[in-house]
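question for whoever is on the cluster today: can someone run the full assembly for these? two chains, 493 residues total. i dont have access anymore since they changed the login thing
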Amino acid sequence: MSGVRVLVGTRKGAFILTSDAKRERWDISEPHFAGWEMYHLKGSAVDPNRLYASQSSSWFGQIIQRSDDGGKTWHQPGTPPGEPTTAPDGSPKGESNKFAYDTSPETGKPLTTHQWYDGTPHPWEFKRVWHLEPSLTDVDTIYAGVEDAALFRSTNGGQNWQELSGLRGHGTGSAWAPGAGGMCLHSIILDPKNPNRIYTAISSAGAFRTDDAGKTWQPINRGLHSLYIPNPTAEVGHCVHRIAMHPSRPGVLFMQKHWDVMRSDDGGESWHEISGNLPTDFGFVIDVHAHEPNTIYVVPIKSDSEHFPPDGKLRVYRSRSGGNEWEALTKGLPQSDCYVNVLRDAMAVDSLDKCGVYFGTTGGQVYASADAGDNWSPIVRDLPAVVSVEVQTLP
Amino acid sequence: MIRVTLPPHLRKLAQIDGEVKLDVAGPVSQRTVLDALEARYPMLRGTIRDHVTQRRRAFVRFFACGEDLSHETPDAPLPDAVAKGTEPFMIIGAIAGG
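^ ran it for u. tokens below:
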């Protein structure tokens, strides 16, 4: 019987929530990696038992964890439990936690600084992995979006990582600046119909696209209008919070920007606003229904300084027309005194029929709807602050 | 034999109970002790020292024999008591209180 596995990253550990296809009764795991910040966990589309997780702390830095059994056991790639941690020659097996920026004379030398908050040049400093995106076709290939913003790739199951430095080096990198949450690469979208095309998004730089598998990149921010930067229509500098795509229509992108919900119908070449009747168009998450490419979801947040729902009412908004016309989804969600946030990686959908929609809050709740958003209920109420939510639909 | 104590998060990461005991060839310094520690437990690489610069991470501190050695140079000799194994080299997460 099919089922669902929800992977939840929180400020103090990861949790795995499982249910059968009815999605009525849930098993909640004990915390994995208790005490660590778990920015993101994601499963491979090729092998659902292969999971990757980003584990980090301000004290001890970045750790990459991998599971080959659906989250029952974990190990750092290259150092499996119970096996020698060094190769016969004494060298360590893999360096799965090492994210070293490209400084090679050929491709990395010009990539020295980005812009700091005060406009001065600042060197790139690796801080953590925000987002992990497994390949759609190869279980051992995975991409990592990191802070300070860069894209890395591993082709050996996370044992070693190499930067795709064409992104930082395409020409605008020196003008990128951090947002309030840091200068993070938080969105990675792989085009299922064109393996050479990848979309990324960075706060606060904007959206970028490669059409040659990561060698060269271009900003795709035409049509974005951001009043909080000196030139509101600049090529880069826009605080994109999240981008989303339906796999059947990879040229159509949806974006939740700092302010404004946006849509592109030409692979990011141009964007137009679809905020329509939303009560506020500030927010972090955006996602697309698994079976209806024109049905999208956002969670409006009051403002950039007041990171909670307007009027204390937690409402998901759904558009069935690809934007502009939105309906509030409230059944089962708190409609008074609710002041949580929903962070950018904390919404996901399953591909069951009907489509399930899930999101987590900074108050530690994970809400689920088994009917595309009509009705909601909490799977769990009292986790640490939720940073990310991913869903696997199991056979 | 050099004795090293680790904070709980790193003990769990390396699947270690209690102190670590290491053989260190040659001079006993922060660098040689950490090199030996990371050789045995490569999952700790990057958690105490930066992968690239090899500098102590900002929120990690080193103590031994009641002294703060965090700001000593990596190649400075550690106290005799550490080299002889009578006192541990302590790796501690900074801001340990609440």
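summary bc i know u wont read the tokens: Chain B has a mean pLDDT of 92. Strands of chain B lie at 2-5, 20-22, 60-64, 67-68, 89-93.
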